[in-house]
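Example for tutorial group B:
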């Protein structure tokens, strides 16, 4: 998974660029992405489905990493997009993405977001409830448009992932219970400002087994058959995202195994398949480059205090997620066990625990597999400017987001009169 970098001449490189050169030019903490890996992941996803009757539409889940350069790179490769807010739609458009290849997911779409998406001409709204369908029908009527809709079903399968990122169980807030789906399609059919285009489901994220996907697909296909018996024909079947990557010792299915299992269950149905992958495309193509500020030995634990923190990479604090930590210039000296922590004033501010590292203050570390849900979930907690983002393309370094200035952080604030 960490193939985006390699050790050469005693130093980690991304493509032709040593990580110390990136730190020197842009400072730390900095997110670093590999253009080659982003492109090869996108191509591999498409190639895995080459035997499908028609090429699936890959709608990159913008929330995983919404940097305009990344959206633009995928748009150039023919990607569609999965968005969950008006803000993400604006990003897709600003990055040259095609709204006509964009699906709008999420349980809480506002009227303004619906109008914006209708005016942009998106591919479809993934509808999650009756009140949402009714609101969309009203908004579409108000602006003289017909809204394309797909109903997001909750197939009630357990994706066996972290509870915060499982979405396809009845206990989750997402989707329409498979028991109510037919009623919702009937209601949609009766609305003249709505056009039924598809069905979708998304059962969770960082899924490392095929089983839950196969179960969800079987349920969705049953529903498609039930709808057809009612005379409701669909144009697409969207199976969401969620395929996991390797952070530590997980063994997620390969993209080829995933595609093979889904295509064999799918058979020769006429509908176009749609996917919404996020993490699988970008997770392994990014790392967070950080510098060791202090080493602080303790009675029970040693701390390596680095200049990145939970505000930069929230996954460890939020999900106890494990990310690999690499020394950028490995030393021959004896390694010690460290908790890698940031400067934020919270005990939950840690990036990695109990790692064997041979390091000195001033050394660089690379936190791996940080391309997905890293920068996108970052914040300004403790009034920390968000990190810079750099894309490596061969031997070239492109800064695709400048580090924030401190003054930016309170630019929208004002004093009382
Ligand atoms: N489609 C929908 C409707 C989603 O809700 C998501 C992710 C995706 C697609 C993309 O899933 P992916 O292929 O990236 O697994 N912050 C968490 C992950 C939250 C995922 C939320 N939904 C993390 O850092 O692990």
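The residue assignment follows.
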């Amino acid at each position: 998974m960490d193939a985006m970098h390699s050790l050469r001449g005693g130093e980690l490189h991304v493509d032709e660029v040593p990580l110390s050169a990136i730190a020197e030019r842009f400072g730390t903490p900095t997110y670093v992405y590999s253009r080659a890996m982003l492109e090869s992941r996108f191509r591999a996803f498409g190639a895995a489905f080459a035997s499908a009757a028609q090429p699936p539409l890959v709608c990159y889940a913008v929330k995983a990493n919404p940097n305009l350069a990344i959206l633009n790179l995928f748009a150039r490769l023919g990607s569609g997009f999965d968005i969950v807010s008006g803000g993400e739609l604006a990003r897709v458009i600003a990055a040259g993405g095609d709204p006509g290849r964009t699906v709008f997911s999420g349980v809480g779409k506002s009227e303004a977001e619906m109008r914006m998406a209708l005016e942009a001409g998106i591919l479809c709204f993934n509808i999650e409830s009756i009140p949402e369908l009714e609101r969309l029908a009203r908004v579409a009527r108000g602006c003289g448009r017909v809204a394309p809709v797909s109903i997001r079903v909750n197939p009630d399968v357990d994706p066996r992932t972290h509870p915060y990122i499982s979405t396809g169980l009845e206990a989750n807030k997402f989707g329409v219970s498979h028991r109510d789906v037919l009623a919702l399609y009937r209601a949609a059919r009766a609305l003249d400002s709505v056009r039924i285009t598809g069905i979708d489901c998304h059962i969770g994220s960082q899924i490392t087994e095929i089983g839950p996907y196969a179960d969800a697909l079987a349920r969705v296909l049953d529903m498609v058959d039930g709808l057809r018996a009612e005379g409701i024909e669909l144009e697409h079947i969207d199976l969401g995202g969620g395929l996991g990557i390797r952070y530590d010792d997980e063994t997620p299915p390969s993209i080829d195994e995933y595609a093979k299992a889904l295509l064999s269950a799918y058979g020769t149905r006429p509908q176009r398949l749609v996917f919404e992958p996020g993490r699988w495309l970008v997770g392994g193509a990014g790392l967070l480059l950080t510098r060791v500020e202090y080493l602080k030995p303790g009675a029970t634990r040693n701390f390596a205090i680095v200049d990145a923190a939970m505000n930069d990479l929230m996954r460890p604090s939020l999900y106890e997620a494990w990310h690999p930590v690499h020394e950028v210039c490995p030393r021959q000296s004896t390694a010690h066990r460290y908790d890698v922590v940031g400067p934020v004033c919270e005990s939950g501010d840690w990036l990695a625990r109990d790692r064997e590292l041979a390091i000195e203050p001033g050394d660089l570390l690379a936190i791996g597999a940080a391309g997905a849900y890293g920068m996108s979930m970052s914040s300004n907690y403790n009034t920390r400017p968000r990190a810079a983002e750099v894309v490596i393309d061969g031997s070239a370094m492109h800064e695709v987001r400048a580090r924030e200035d401190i003054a930016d952080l309170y630019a929208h604030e004002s004093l009382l009169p």
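The chain has a mean pLDDT of 95. Compare this with the pattern of hydrophobic and polar residues in the output above.
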